[in-house]
Amino acid sequence: MHREVALQIAQFQQQIEEIYLDRDRERGSARTFAWLVEEVGELSRALRGEDRANLEEEFADVFAWLASLASIVGVDLSQAAVTRYGAGCPKCHTTPCSCPPA
Amino acid sequence: MHREVALQIAQFQQQIEEIYLDRDRERGSARTFAWLVEEVGELSRALRGEDRANLEEEFADVFAWLASLASIVGVDLSQAAVTRYGAGCPKCHTTPCSCPPA
Fold first, then answer.
1. Distance (Å, whole) CA A68 – CA A84
2. pTM score, whole prediction
3. What is the predicted pLDDT for the residue at B4?
């Protein structure tokens, strides 16, 4: 199910930069983080509801604010993801994770 | 700077599924959401600090928990991102966003 849309992480971050970076950079990382948290709250509400389209929108919104915040502070989300998870779980280094249950 | 690592969103979600989905699904969406929020808190702390490697890790962790939560509830993060942001800002439908400042 995950193969239909071949959008790269870096492309998405670039796209969000083109849409929002100027105003997000002006707002700054602290206030942009506050917006990210607001979107996480909206995702929480959507998870409790029955509206699938809204649920998908809220996942996209959290992802978009995370990407924009990363851009503001100069983090390449794609590079960060590969560095952190490219060799499996960053703690036990296996796939699937074999850490003790948390 | 964002072109070095051509990792697709769907590949990342798939990778996180392979590492964590069995245990995350068992934990359920409510408790996995709680972990996502914990990671958002760690990102907040990293944003205030000076440790770049840790900052990148925290961005990756929020992204990973978001992807895993999406998998638990059957949301394709890549599809959601394209549907929501593929035509620019979802509110004003332009790039860059021309909505009134919030």
1. 19
2. 0.93
3. 47
Q: What number of other Cβ atoms are within 10 A of residue A53's Cβ?
A: 11
Confidence of residue B101 (pLDDT cuts 50, 70, 90): confident
Q: What is the mean pLDDT of chain A?
A: 92
Is this complex scored with an ipTM above 0.90? yes
Hey, are the CB atoms on A95 and B37 less than 8 Å from each other? no
* DSSP reduced 3-state for A59: helix
Report helix, strand and coil shares of chain A as percent, to nearest 5.
70, 0, 30
Distances (CA, A) of B21 to A2, B69, B71: 14, 9, 7
Query: Cβ contacts (< 8 Å) between B55 and chain A: which residues?
Result: 73, 75
Nearest to B59 by CA among A73, A93, A22: A73
Distance CA B26, CA B11 (A): 22
